[in-house]
Each structure stands twice: as structure tokens, then as C-alpha cells.
């Protein structure tokens, strides 16, 4: 098809499958015949461009599928937009939340991870629709792209120091302050479990601390920053180690969410804490049956060195609690049990407060960012109490692994608290979500936080 030479944006009309027959009757006869000749029916992923008398594109028709297909696959418009030829397009046929979601899908579809090889950009660009919050849209997109880039980068180029550098770049962008405690200074400053997990690596462990905002409720985000996880002395088999570059997905997601919060000037006192380590092996590695004393003073028996994420988060949560935040949220690629329970597409979260849970679930719908509430089930507390120490980092039996991990973390969070046990990875390509690193829960929280914090 001839490339358009138009200077104005090309109308891109979004059409649901059930509406197509009526819409076709109201299109110019030539346009309707052309679309039907090309097999357009409005089903998900359908895309056709209609030429004018000069061979330029006069309009594009994008299939949005049926209500049933929308329930099975979100961001359907992205797969249609990805097929469009080069040009700038303007969405038509949508309004309100549906228009914002389509614009978000289009922008998210344009992501390319091009650090290691040249990637062809998405041909079709989108003119920001009138009447939507462009600052919010751009914050969501750029925050998600930051998260994806960090997770997709292999551990050879994304160790604790490089994660710190990314945090510093974000802090500089938003005029935030950043303080980092690293190496043996962690022991001097009473972060014993962060140090224990990271000390066997040649790449020094550290705690990254970002602060932004001078007024409003105190919000603290804590992200698991295990830049690579061998499993430690309980070493993972090769097949389980293959995706461990993504074990800092919690840190990547809280950095993406922090960007969204700062870019939209949310009136909060934001703090981001990231324990950044590599769980490696040498003669100094912590061992099964070791007992560690945490920053909070609780002792922890190590029954599996591969359950290290909760250890580094525990020290960070205890530290964050000392500032008496109004809300503290941890995000971590913490357990395989969570993926067994809900699969890779849902972000399980834990919270005691029903109002906070309802706000997060409502934010998930508005942000097209699915979540699922899991229980802080008190009867399982005994499973994390080994007897020889206050806590067990890896209860035997293999049951309720995500719940017991969440209960473990709750022991260190002396503040209103929510925990997300995310996957941080898209196992196969889907509309607006290429295979690879993925943020989960950030958009849901961005929408939920104003309600939770009453701002």
C-alpha cells in the first residue's frame, strides 16, 4: 500500500465486532466494500486501511473484538495497531476510560528492548487523544518501560551496582535524594540479613534509599533487588536458574511505580527502599541451619538458602517501619507457589485491611492491571515458627508457600502493609506485552493510592 503523505493524523476507528454491520452501512460505499473485501469483520486484531482517490490512506479500521474476547485478552486494540503502516494516527470511536485504555495499549505495544540489537520501531504512532490525561498516560508508559528494561537486562549488566545506578538516574530525573549503604557498612548500620545474603558475591550488597516529596502521607515502597539468584548453597538446578535475571523484578517494579508517582506529582512523601544483592556461592556464603539475627531483633533459622528474598526484604521492611509510614508496600518475585496458584498474568497481593484491598482491586480494573487478593491466613503462622529461632525462612512440607512467605514478611512491617508476590515476566507475547520483563501491580496501585491515602 502506498505510504501516506498526509500531514494530519489519519483517523483510526475502533470497531467492535457486534457493531460492524451497522457501521459498515454508514461508511462511504467504497470504504465499506474495500474493508469487507479485505476480510474485515471487527474481530480482535483485524486491521485494514482504506485508500482515498489518490492512493493515500483515508482511514484505518481496527477490530476490537467482542465482549467475550475482551474478557479473555486485554489490550486487544494493540494487536491491530501493530499491523498499521507508517504514519500518525488518531483514535476514533471511543471515549472516557475506553479511550485511555486504547491509547495505553497502543503506547505499550511500541516497546522495544534494543540494548543488544537494533529493533525496528513500531511503524504507526499515536497522536495523543484529546480529553485524556497525557501526563498520566506518559507516566504509566515510561514507568512500565523502565521496569521492562531493568528486568530484561541480563545480570552481567544489571548487578547491585548497576541497579543502584538506575535508581540514581531516576532520583536525578525527579530531584529526589538517594542514599546507599553498601558492603560491610551494612553490618555497621545493622542490616545483617541483607549482608548475609549478598556477602558471597564479588558484587557488594547494598541498600538503596530514595526519598521524594516534602508533604502529604508517608508512602514507603520496598522492592526485592536480587539481581541474580543461584539459590546459594541450596543451588538451583539449571532449568530453574534460567530466568533468575528477573529476580530483581520487585525492585524494577517499585522503581517504575515511583517514576509514575513522581511524574504525576502525587502529593505524598515517597520513600523507596531496595535491598540489592546477588545470591551467590563462595566460602563466605550463608548456610542451611544458620541462624541470623535480623535488624528487628527477630532470629531466623535458615532452612533453605534459596528463600533469600524474604531475608533481604525483612531488614528493609524493619528499617522502613522506623519512619512510621502511613502505608508500606513490598513487591517481590518471591515464590514459585504464587505462580502455581494464579499463573503469570495475575499479581497476587496480601493485605489485612478490606478497604485497602477494595481500592487496589478497583485500581486494577481502571489500570487494566489484573490482581488477585490472597489471605494472610493466621492459622499458618505456626508453620514459620521452627522452635529453635523466632522464624523459619523456608517451612518444610511445600504447602502454602506464598502465604507463609507473606506471613514472614508481615512480622517485620510495623505499619499498614500490603505485599505483592509478582512474577515480573511475560512468558509469551500478548497484545501490548512482548515476551520478557513485565511490570505487575504498578498501574493498579497508582490508581488506588489516592483513595487509600485520602489525597
From TrEMBL:
Pfam families: Peptidase_M17, Peptidase_M17_N_1. One of its GO terms (biological process) is proteolysis. PROSITE patterns: CYTOSOL_AP. GO terms for molecular function: manganese ion binding; metalloaminopeptidase activity. One of its GO terms (cellular component) is cytoplasm. The keyword Hydrolase applies. It comes from the Bacteria. CDD domains: Peptidase_M17 (cd00433). The keyword Transmembrane helix does not apply. Residues 304-311 form the Cytosol aminopeptidase domain. Keywords: Aminopeptidase, Hydrolase, Manganese, Protease. InterPro entries: Leucine_aapep/pepB, Macro_dom-like, Peptidase_M17_C, Peptidase_M17_N_1. Belongs to the peptidase M17 family. This is Leucyl aminopeptidase. It comes from Marivivens niveibacter. The lineage of its organism: Bacteria, Pseudomonadati, Pseudomonadota, Alphaproteobacteria, Rhodobacterales.
